[in-house]
Amino acid sequence: MANNNKVQIIPLGGLGEIGKNMTVFRYGDDIILIDAGLMFPEDDMLGIDLVIPDFTYLVENKEKVRGIFLTHGHEDHIGALPYVLKQLDVPVYGTALTLGILKGRLEENGVSCNDMHVVRPGDKVEVGSFCLDFIRVNHSIPDAVAIAINTPIGVIIHTGDFKIDHTPVDGEVTQFNKFAEYGDKGVLLLLADSTNAERPGFTPSEKMVGQTFMEEFKGVKGRIIVATFSSNVHRIQQVVDAAVFYKRKIAVMGRSMVNVVNIALEMGYLKAPEGSIIDIEETYNYRADEVVIITTGSQGEPMSALTRMATGDHKKVDILPGDTVIISATPIPGNEKLVSRTIDNLYKLGANVIYEKSNGVHVSGHASQEELKLMHNLVRPTFFMPVHGEFRHLIKHAEIAKSLGMPSENIVIGENGNVIELTPYSFGVTAKIPAGKLLVDGLGVGDVGNIVLRDRRQLSQDGIMIVVVTLEKESCNILSGPDIVSRGFVYVREAEGLMEEAKVKVSDALEQCQMSGNNEWSVIKSAIRDSLGKFLYEKTRRRPMILPIIMEV
Q1: Out of 62, 325, 339, 505, which residue is the most buried by the measure of CB atoms under 10 Å away?
Q2: Which residues does 531 contact at the CB level (< 8 Å), separation at least 6?
Q3: Is 149 helix (H, G, I), strand (E, B) or coil?
C-alpha cells in the first residue's frame, strides 16, 4: 500500500452522520488520526449506551500509527479514545483543556495514557512524514483548533468544528491570518465542518447569549436553573458572570458538569470569584433569589439532573413554583420528544421555562453559509471534501464550494470507509474498507450487533413466549408440560383460554413429529415455533418471540 506520491484519507466516522468523527491520514507507512469521537444511540438501538467508529483498520495497522491529534474536547471528537487507547499505544496531542477533559474520561473508564502532549496554536509537531500546525478557531468550547497537515505532496487543512466569532467570550479570535498565509502558499485539500451548511447568513456570537442571560436574570424572584452542555465552558462562564452581577451564588449539578467545571476552574478556562460557587446542599442556606443552579439535561436525557428534577426523582433538588428554568441548547435531532416532555413536566411543577431559540438563550458553535464561504476564500484549496455532517449537509457544503468557483470534479463527497487518494493532480475514491459502528453496551464493545438488536426490538414490540416440555428420551412421549411462560405478550391470568389453546397446539406439533419419526431437537423446536407462531398471529395479530425449551429424561 506504500506509495510516496499520494496521501490516503480514510474517514472512519463523521460522514453522513452527526458524531463519531474520526479521520485517518496515511502517507506510505505513516498513519495519523484526527479525532476519535462517539455518538449517542438512536431510538432503535435498545439498551445501547454509546456508538463508536469501527477502528479495525487502525488496530490492523497499529505499528504504522504515529499519533492521534485532537481538534477540541467535545464527546463527538474524543469520546471513543477510552476504547481506542486500550488497543493502540500511541501518543495523543491536544490543547490543554482538551487533554484535561480527556484525562477525566480515561480515568472514568480505567484507561491510562502516559503519552499525552499539550499543544498550543502556532505549535508544530513532526511525526513520520507529517508536520502538523495548530491554528486557533472559535467553537462552543475553548481551546478548539484547526490543523494544517503538511505532507510531502502538499498542505491539507482540517478545520475541525468552527465558527467565525468576532467577539468570543475569551477574547481569542480565530487566526484568520494563518489560514490566509496557507492560502497564499497553496493548499492542496480542505476538509471543513458542514454541520450548519444549510443555514444562511452568519452564526451569532456567543456573547449574545451572555446579554440574554443578563436580561433574563433581571428581576427574577425565584431560583434560576440553567441547563446546558457540560462542555460548553463559554456558556457556563456567561451564566457565572450573570449570577455574580446579580449577587447570586452558583451551584453545579450533574456528574459531567461538575467534572468539566472543576477542570476548567483548575486550568483557568473558567473564572469565578472566590466563594461564588457553592455545594448544592448549601443552596438551602440562601433565599431563592440568591441562587443559580447550572445543570446537565438540556437534551432531556432520562438520567440527567434536569430530567430527574422535572419528574420529582432528584434526591437533592425539587422544582418549586416560581423557579425559572433556562434550557440553553437546541435539541439534537431525535431528542425533540425528550426535551418536550421535560419542558411539560417543568411547567406542571409550576416553573417558568425559557427554551425557544428565538429567546436568544442559545447560539450554535458551527459556521453558517457565509462563514463557510469566508473559510473557502481564505484557504483557496485545489480540492475540497466536506466533513462532519449528515449527507444533506455534505451536499449543501459542496454546492457552496461550487458557487465559489470550485470545479465539481475537484470535490469528493465521501462515505465512512472510503479510501480517498490525493495526489498533487487528482483526488478520488479508490477503495473501501470496513468502517461501521461499534455498539457499546455496558462493558461490551462490539459484542452486540444487528441480530441482537433485532431480537431486542422484537421483544420490545410483541414480547416473548417460553414453551417448556419434558420428553421421554427413547419414545419422545410427553412426560410433563407443555408449560408456557409469557412476558410482554399477554397477561397470563387474563388470557387463560388462549394459553390452554396454545398448549394444545404445542402438543399437536409434538405428536406430528412423533408420528413422522423425526425426533431431532431442532426439528421439534422448529415445529413448535411454526405451529404456535401461526396460531398466535391468527388470534392476536402479534408475533412474540417463541423460545422452546425441551428437556429429556
Answers
A1: 325
A2: 505, 506, 508, 509
A3: strand
Known catalytic residue: 193? yes
Element (H, E) at 81: helix 81-84
Write the CB contacts of 267 (distance below 8 Å, at least 6 apart in sequence). Answer: 96, 97, 100
Radius of gyration from C-alpha coordinates of the chain: 28
The three grid cell numbers given for residue 386, joined into one nine-digit string: 466536506
Query: In whole angstroms, what is the distance from residue 326 CA to residue 57 CA?
Result: 44
Q: Is 205 left (phi over 0), alpha (psi -120 to 50) or beta?
A: beta
Signed CA dihedral, 6, 12, 16, 20: sign only = negative
Of residues 201, 121, 158, 145, the one with CA closest to residue 364: 201
- CA–CA–CA angle 341, 347, 353 (5° rounding): 90
**Residue type at position 164:** I
Contact 189, 412 (CB under 8 A): no
Catalytic residue among 158, 234, 366, 376: 366
Residue 366 is a catalytic residue: yes
Q: What is the pTM of this model?
A: 0.82
Look at 518 and 325; give whichever has higher pLDDT: 325
| Sign, CA torsion 320/322/328/329 | positive
pLDDT in tens, 191-237: 999 999 999 999 999 999 999 999 999 989 999 999 998 888 999 99
List pLDDT tens digits, range 287-302. 999 999 999 988 887 7
* The one catalytic residue among 35, 76, 143, 193: 193
CA atoms of 453 and 195, how far apart (whole Å): 29
Secondary structure (DSSP) of 418-443: EEEEE-SS-EEEEEE----EEEEETT
pLDDT tens digits along 239-260: 999 999 999 999 999 888 999 9
Grid cell at residue 206:
456567543
Residue with cell 504504522: 64
